[in-house]
Amino acid sequence: MAETIASQIAAAVDNAQLHGKTEIALDVAERDLEIGRQIQSGFFPERLPDIPGWEIATHFHAARQVAGDFYDAFQFKDSKFTAFIIADVCDKGVGAALFMVLFRSLLRAFSERQIARENIQDQLLDIILSTNNFIAEYHGKSNMFATLFFGILDPESGVLHYVNGGHEPPIILNRKGEVSQQLMPTGPAVGLFPKMKFQVERVVLAEGDCVIGYTDGTTDARNTSGEQFSEERLLKNIAYPWTSVFSMLFELNTELQKHIGEQNQFDDITLISFRRKSAADDSAHVICRTAHMNFLAELREFVESAAAHSGLERDHVFAFKLAVDEICTNIIQYGYEGREPGLLSLSFDMNDDWARLIIRDDGRHFSPDQAESPDIEAGWNEREAGGLGLYFVQELMDNVTYNRTPENANQYVLEKEIKPQMQ
Fold first, then answer.
1. Which of 1, 52, 89, 398 suits 226 as a labelling partner, its CA being 20 to 30 A distant?
2. Cβ atoms of residues 178 and 239 within 8 Å
3. Which DSSP string corresponds to 373-408?
């Protein structure tokens, strides 16, 4: 009996030690993966190119800590010609992430050249062939490759030269929001074998035309029933005359996350879009929702993301986030009290001097001027309820105005001066 008890104790001690070592190993692995994620994130462009007459937006959501998808956008040396890249390395996990870094580095390195209108096709083809041959010759035994789309845009003429190496066909929407074309593959995946054949194609983007590139993690995204998001659903969700490509990608990602729900994300989701502005475009980022508390988080996330996308500093982003939370909460709780909730819309735009958020609703008329100013000096027990939120909004913003529109809608305009901080 003593021997049996001793052996059981010894087994328990061994299991405990093994469990402890496993926990330590898992902690180390998690820490290493987090370091890898941070390093990999540095290979995405910190800022997207600022091209007069064009707008660009991107979205990236990794399925794991490290990813095999990537996008890139940059201007060639001493040139206005701009590269747009979206790619998906085969497989998943650490191996795919390492090759993602390799592919991205090679494409950037081989793009260190002069680009002119008369040699775009030859230069683009040479970039792709050089990348393909290097991967195939030096890493052929790994059997790793990538599908990728590489386009070179002439922003003045709107001509886009491109190579699609086995990637999901980017979609072109016209100014009416209609799908006008898909840019089909012009060659195989990159890195499979040396000296593969690729072809350069071209398309002319008219004013209002928009290009949307995506990886298969978008269309293959699955819900709890295993149903894929699908290309058909993707096309249905983007076919609309959007005010900005940022708004389009935000709404598309919202639909993707609703579809995925509680299911673990199946694959990396990567999106890139660019549009040639038309004279009628105001490029404001717009969202519209039913005035219900269920949508408050989406409204808040939209403003936070739009402000960050526009290049605002963190404190300004935070100010807009707090302001929209306060005003929209008041609208939802009091503007539609005792009646069916109507619509609540947000419009965010920015120029060289101001960042501006316009909040509109068709609820009960209530001007902020009607609210009594709170007694800030009074103690919490002595202060009367109400007015404090609007006071904080006015403190956060440099200018807050309200008016009743001819359509009988409430309109709040919140402005933040940005020129002094950006000098």
1. 89
2. yes
3. PP-TTS-TTTSPSSSHHHHHHHHHSSEEEEEE-TTS
Three-state SS for 78? coil
The rounded distance, in Å, linking the Cα atoms of 252 and 46 is 22
243 CB-contact burial (10 Å; exposed 0-12 / middle 13-18 / buried 19+): middle
In one-letter notation, the amino acid at residue 228 is Q
Cα separation of 247 and 228, whole Å?
Answer: 23
d(CA 234, CA 196): 31
Q: Determine contact, residues 357/346, Cβ cutoff 8 Å.
A: yes
Distance of CA 283 to the CA centre of its chain: 17
Enter the pTM of the model. Answer: 0.87
What pLDDT score does 422 carry? 42
End-to-end CA distance of the chain: 82
Burial 30-53 (b: 16+ CB within 10 A, else e): eeebeebeeebeeeeeeebbebee
Which of 368, 304, 302 shows the shortest CA–CA distance to 335?
A: 368
- Alpha helices (runs of H) in 159-295, residue ranges in sequence order: 216-219, 231-238, 245-260
Which pLDDT value is given to residue 10? 57
